[in-house]
Design goal:
The structure holds two protein chains of two kinds. Chain A contains eight helices and nine strands. Chain A is α/β, with parallel strands linked by helices. The longest helix of chain A has 16 residues. Chain A starts with 13 loop residues before the first strand and ends with a helix. Chain B has one domain. The chains are: A alpha/beta, B mainly alpha.
Chain lengths: ~220, ~220
């Protein structure tokens, strides 16, 4: 399913200009600039506490920057929140999964929230997604009973639900086993080959072939 | 949009049902407070009859306050709030769904139990009828106004005290109009004026608070 989708129709550019964020009276990072074009990955690096998660949240529009702005196709993301959110999938630090809902219920809520390209009632698509993330046998299990890795996979499934061109992934590989890591790498690769963009933080090396991967080290700019 | 409203409502109700202890808490509190009053002030029927509207409404108000935090707190903790804020659905619609879910969980039981307790306090039948209508119109206002207060304080680690200080003054008009209406009809006068005021407050709060709460939430998560 992931490999069979057509290329993204529009080519988009995510650009960050003179971005600075202050936290508790000190600059977390200052004057960050980059342009991310289709088929590119930005790999954020930096020590713990260097502001990787904060930068990702700024890119999502969840946190406001103290200086500078984020642009999607040259329009500030704060002036087009709705259109931007339609193009965005964010896997945050916390999974955003309700422990007291079943896997399927969680997936359905995510589908509606992201205005999925699939129908919520489409059993075939749901089965396929669950099979992809390796949870086909636990669709009626409460998320509470899942392991940390399984929960991470379920959270990642959000990226597969809608046709978003920009993936922002905060440590997507934590708690995953080898198979899970391979699956996520493969999914990111397919996404990039379709003309997507991705901003990723990860302490593990990402094994993605034939992709232009820019590295940005936040500890260096602090 | 309707689908989003429906799925969030359904999600919150399912979550409440799976947490039965929390579900019972507000209504149990409401019943206990009202039941304790005759023990405290003595069982003289004319005293009880006189204070009944006030007692029932104050108990309803406090039980709503007790359960307010739940509207956004758990969603904030597990990251689902972030996902709602960056979803491709209008946030105010999602919040309206959460307000209504909160009312069904905490307000509706009070609307049902309240008149029974009024009977127990010796309120005349005309008064009980009006009490039922004021509770039906008034409790959703409590959930709606409360959602703004919670949205403002959910980012704070100890927002409990501020929440009460913030929300209680805004609850006062509801308390005044509602107990006035019940008093008037128990004494044989028409209560139309106060009931109309409550209806106006209800419409006003349901149409304005989702927007206010969504702006407040964006501030709280950043």
């Amino acid at each position: 399913m992931i490999n069979s989708l057509p290329a993204y129709t529009k080519s988009r550019i995510l650009s960050v200009k003179r971005l600075s964020v202050e936290k508790q009276d000190r600059w977390l990072f200052q004057n960050i600039n980059f342009d991310l074009k289709p088929k590119e990955v930005l790999h954020l690096e930096g020590e713990n506490g260097s502001g990787k998660t904060t930068l990702l949240r700024v890119l999502c529009g969840l946190t406001l920057a103290d200086e500078g702005d984020v642009y999607w196709d040259d329009i500030s993301i704060n002036q087009q929140t709705y259109d931007y959110h339609l193009q965005l999938s964010y896997l945050g630090h916390s999974d955003g999964i309700k422990q007291d809902l079943t896997v399927l219920e969680n997936l359905r809520v995510a589908m509606v929230l992201s205005r999925s390209i699939y129908e919520v009632s489409d059993k075939q698509v749901l089965d396929e997604i669950l099979e992809n993330i390796g949870l086909q046998n636990s669709q009626d299990t409460l998320a509470f009973h899942l392991s940390a890795g399984q929960r991470r996979r379920l959270a990642f499934a959000r990226c597969l639900l809608n046709d978003s061109a920009l993936w922002i992934l905060d440590e997507p590989l934590t708690a995953l086993d080898k198979k899970g890591i391979a699956f996520i790498e493969q999914a990111i690769q397919a996404h990039i080959e379709r003309g997507g963009l991705a901003v990723i933080t990860s302490h593990q090396a990402l094994n993605i072939k034939n992709v232009r991967c820019t590295r940005l080290n936040l500890s260096a700019v602090a | 949009m309707l689908q989003a409203f429906y799925i969030i409502l359904q999600r919150d109700l399912i979550l409440a049902v799976r947490h039965r202890a929390e579900l019972m808490n507000p209504v149990l509190f409401f019943v206990l407070v009202v039941v304790l009053f005759p023990l405290g002030v003595g069982a003289e029927i004319n005293v009880l009859e006189k204070i009944a509207p006030g007692v029932i409404w104050i108990a309803a108000l406090l039980s709503a306050l007790l359960s307010l935090d739940r509207i956004f707190r758990t969603d904030m903790e597990d990251g689902s709030l972030e996902q709602m804020l960056i979803s491709a659905q209008p946030v105010s619609v999602l919040i309206l769904a959460k307000i209504i879910a909160h009312w069904v969980i905490t307000g509706l039981p009070v609307v049902i139990v309240g008149p029974l307790l009024a009977l127990f306090l010796g309120l005349p039948v005309e008064g009980i009828q009006t009490l039922f209508f004021t509770l039906l119109l008034g409790t959703p206002i409590l959930s709606a106004i409360g959602s703004v207060g919670v949205a403002l304080t959910v980012g704070l680690r100890r927002g409990g005290v501020i929440l009460s200080l913030l929300v209680l003054p805004l609850y006062v008009p509801v308390l005044i109009f509602a107990s006035q209406a019940v008093d008037a009809s128990a004494a044989g006068f028409p209560a139309t004026a106060a009931i109309t005021m409550l209806s106006a407050l209800l419409i006003l709060s349901l149409s304005l608070t989702p927007w206010a709460a969504s702006s407040a939430l964006k501030m709280s998560v950043s």
